[in-house]
Amino acid sequence: MTAGVLVTAALAAGCGPQDPGADALRQPSARATTAPASPAPSPTDDGKGGTGTAEPSPSTPPPSPSAPPTEPPTTPPTPSSPAPRPSTAPPPEVLMRTGSEGAQVRELQARLRQIGHFGRNPTGYYGKVTADSVRSFQAKRGTEATGSTDADTWRKLLTMTRTPTADELDPPTERPVAEPDERCLTGRVLCISKKSRTLAWMIDGRVVSAMDVRFGSEYTPTREGEFPVYWKSRDHVSTLYDTPMPYALFFSGGQAVHYSADFAANGYGGASHGCVNVRDRKKVAALFDQVKNGDKVVIYW
Q1: Per-block average pLDDT, block size 10, for the chain (301 residues)?
Q2: Is-contact 226 215, C-beta < 8 A?
Q3: Is 184 a known active-site residue?
Q4: Cα(255)–Cα(273) distance, integer angstroms
Q5: Compositional bias (Pro residues) at which positions (predicted)?
Q6: Which of 63, 151, 296, 299 could form an S-S bond across to 189 if both were Cys, CB 3.0 to 4.6 Å?
Q7: CA-closest candidate to residue 217, choices 268, 281, 280, 279
Q8: pTM score > 0.85 for this model?
Q9: Each residue of 159-169: pLDDT tens digit?
Q10: Is the dihedral of CA 171, 175, 178, 184 positive or negative?
């Protein structure tokens, strides 16, 4: 092989490093050209190199594989508020009901009496009669007829009535006092008439106060005669019947003059177990404070 052939073969192999200086002499500087370089052949689907001939570039670049559409950021839904319930105002405050006692009950009764809803003298005790009167008043005004006096009922009643006078709040006894027994004309005496159903507290023949009373039934009659008050018990409760006997003035065994809530509520529809029931709490409370042990009790027809 001639030297020329060997040189030619070595140049054709081209596997050694090229001389950068020789390259620079043979090729124009890359910075000097403004033509874009031809794109490198794209790999084929199976990963092998493509053919040496570059495919012409399309005028419009092929669409890049589209990324899945981006959902617009969503604001997490605000938890919906529960549907508003129908607004129900709290029920009005109950001021008085069955079993209530005191000055406000007495005023309630006096005001109801002014407009024809209470047919008795005020007693200061809220019993069945008072509850029925309140119920009647409520029904006539188109409100719920509960029989209890709530704040709305009280307001309506105040607008329809005037302030009761002292006589309206504490009127004279419903029943005229009977002619006193002659034993009642001297000293300090609880003069009690079964005929007129009244008690007159008398001092030396003068009536200091009077009040309605009721007595025992035919099976438990109230004893008649003259007796001394031998024991006073302000907050007494019957040990035999387990019932309250406030302001008790005992005069004969277990029989006493005392306040009766049942009498205040139901009038003469009932009877005692032998005691003398008083229905006006205010009056019997004052009587209790004035009467002394040893004062007389006279019960007669």
Answers
A1: 39 38 40 44 39 47 54 59 66 94 93 93 88 96 95 96 91 78 98 96 96 95 98 96 95 97 84 95 96 98 94
A2: no
A3: no
A4: 8
A5: 58-93
A6: 296
A7: 268
A8: no
A9: 999 999 988 98
A10: negative
Q: Across the strands, what pairs with 202?
A: 189, 207
Phi, psi of 134, rounded to the nearest 5 degrees: -65, -40
Which residues, in sequence order, are CB contacts of 169 under 8 Å at separation 6+?
Answer: 106, 107, 110, 122
For residues 180 and 205, what is the distance between their CA atoms, to the nearest angstrom? Answer: 9
CA distances in angstroms from 62 to 38, 48, 205, 242, listed in the order given: 17, 21, 131, 106
Q: What are the backbone angles phi and psi of residue 136, rounded to the nearest 5°?
A: -60, -45
Residue of 15, 184, 258, 273 with catalytic role: 258
Nearest to 41 by CA among 57, 20, 61: 57
Amino acid letter, residue 33: T
Amino acid at residue number 85: R
Query: Is 275 in the active site?
Result: yes
Q: How far is CA 106 from CA 120, 121, 124, 167, 188, in A?
A: 11, 9, 4, 12, 29
